[in-house]
């Protein structure tokens, strides 16, 4: 299943996430993912695993046009003591990512977060240039609010093809997603599995998920346990299928081979309308995947 992101390109609806996977493990897990049918790999300059992703791609024997690769430019963040990338540093960042990946273009290049303040548009203009050069077939943003997207529109620049944001039943962002839908900006959902008790436990809880949220997932009467049982699927499959039925692309991450297989096996069941409606009222606002809080809700 693919989702159209502009006139010329579509994105596979289920991609493989690679955050918190180190470079050596990325080679192993991306190889596994490609073997079981994933055709979209999501990486980032900041994940420090682009080289491992590239090795897995080369070893797979798949043609370049058979796999969709997303990577992201780290914008810098003055609040964390980092300089902001200017126009030429942004251009150079993709060259460096392509070098690490061993590719001459990526399918999708994103600004990882809206941290560049007054230089946000300068970074976006650099992505427009990279698109013109063909080094990025499609371009988009991540963690942008509607105000950040408005800024691009008001400046008369190219509308981002996608906005990659945290989306799951506990962070549904109804206003932002309807704003995006009206403007044809496709939502790519990250951290779909937040409600699971297991979410990022193996990685050591690098997030702002509360203890209360984690505890909820361990209870026998946990809503997603009951819903998963009803459809005879796992809780992870239910959460990912929810994202697909909302029209989002999803990016499950796992280093566990059985879970990697399970997380793409989402097309043999459908969540009924009344259960979609029951999930619609579970929204709790901002996401939790970032230790500093959901960047979409920060200005
Ligand atoms: N743009 C951004 O700012 C941003 C932020 C966060 C994430 N992302 C992207 O989105 C991807 C996914 O998000 P994420 O890594 O936060 O989390 P996720 O995919 O929602 O969940 C991953 C966590 O769930 C566990 N898990 C995976 N499949 C499972 C299953 N079937 N059953 C039980 N547990 C399971 C994993 O552990 P095991 O590995 O042990 O299975 C891991 O702890 C990232 O890898 C990254 O590519 C982007």
Describe how the helices and strands are arranged:
Blueprint: E1 2-4, E2 10-12, E3 16-17, H1 23-35, E4 40-42, H2 50-60, E5 68-73, H3 87-101, E6 106-111, H4 120-133, E7 136-142, H5 146-154, E8 162-166, H6 174-183, E9 186-190, H7 211-216, H8 223-231, H9 235-245, E10 249-250, H10 257-262, H11 273-280
Parallel strand pairs: 3-4, 4-5, 5-6, 6-7, 7-8, 8-9, 9-10
Antiparallel strand pairs: 1-2
The structure holds NADP nicotinamide-adenine-dinucleotide phosphate.
NADP nicotinamide-adenine-dinucleotide phosphate (NAP) binds at residues 17-19, 42, 112, 142-143, 164, 190-193, 196, 198-200, 202-203, 234, 236, 251-256, 259, 262-263, 289.
Summarize the structure.
It is built from eleven helices and ten strands.
Please give a handful of descriptors for the protein shown.
binds NADP nicotinamide-adenine-dinucleotide phosphate, 299 residues, TIM Barrel, eight-stranded parallel sheet, two-stranded antiparallel ribbon, 10 strands, single chain
Structural overview:
With 299 residues, the chain is an alpha/beta fold. The protein has a single domain (2-297), classed as Alpha-Beta Barrel (TIM Barrel), CATH 3.20.20.100. Helix content is 37%, strand content 14%. It is built from 11 helices and 10 strands. The site of NADP nicotinamide-adenine-dinucleotide phosphate has 30 residues, from helix 10. Residues 17-19, 42, 112, 142-143, 164, 190-193, 196, 198-200, 202-203, 234, 236, 251-256, 259, 262-263, 289 line the site of NADP nicotinamide-adenine-dinucleotide phosphate (NAP).
